[in-house]
What we know:
heterodimer, A: 5 helices, B: five-stranded parallel beta sheet
Amino acid sequence: MTVRVPKQTDDQPQRRADALAELQSTLARAGELLHSLEQSARRPAPTSVNELQDRLDDVVQDRDELSRRLAEYEQQTGRLMNLYVATYQLHATLDPGEVQSTIAEIATNLLGAERFALLFWNADGTQCEIALGQGLSQDASGFYSAGKYAGGDPAVDATLTDGVLRMGPLDGSEAVAVVPLTVQGAVVGSLVILKLFEHKAMLRPEDRELLDLLAAHAASALFAARVYHQTDRKLKTLESLIQLVKRG
Amino acid sequence: MPPRKVLIVDDSKLLHRMFEMMLRQYPLVHAYDGKEALERLAENGDVDLVLLDMNMPRMNGLELLEAMKGDARFKGIPVILVTTEGSEEQTQRGLDAGAAAYVKKPFRNEELIAVVQRLTGPAA
Lengths: 248, 124
């Protein structure tokens, strides 16, 4: 596998820390609101209709704020859950085929990609091979054929060179997003999302976190699985040879 | 009330893991294609809800749905189709086949949980 050094490093840990801090802040605020509601309930009985109305208004306001915060909290939990599950599943196996399937499942089920290509540089770094593709037979660009990416899409070419994640619209490119795949900071390939499902109009801000996750984890998971697979195969060959020698 | 049991039918391990996280309060049964789902249904007579993908090997979602609706043991179990097939035609086809609800992938977690709770009531 050929490696190319990117100009930028990923900020995945920082993003996760930010998301966690946001979640903690939301929880703290929700706690404050609950406390405030409890205090309202403990106040002495109102002496007039106006006072009663004021208290009711306060409670309604607090309740609305609490619902809004709860909805935010649920969204953040959902985002973090998606990130956790994607990371877990990428590293849950040492079978290269399964890691590739997981990348495809993340692209399809979590990002809503209808057409995409998973590209990897070949051993001597002269050609980018399509390790996995979906819907590419309907791609009219001609860049993706015979199991290879021919080059020519400016956004893909740029990402394969500089390792920077790009999201559409991109000048001169039909790609919706181009995700660099890196191992120890070196670019080994790219995930190119060419088309989203019709019911998904565009990538959402939270999708950016998933794309970052893929950039940081997909290639290293696949690289580890391939190395394990090769080592395991060699080990089995050696074991067979030893058995053969023992019998002889 | 005992917790509601949910059968997950999807060929994606990622989705199974995600449903495990999202529906932690429900006992789950897992199947990776339609045929396996029929076996799981026969083994688990207390399944209250099925979350069903459309595109799967061996027996797809619509075929499973038809098989369930034609079997007296399973025809009363509500089915939520959870699929990337998002066109109006596909949605209508799923609902015509007897699905109780249709959720398009990718979905927001709270959206799916709301549909599950609507069909099962809150988890015990």
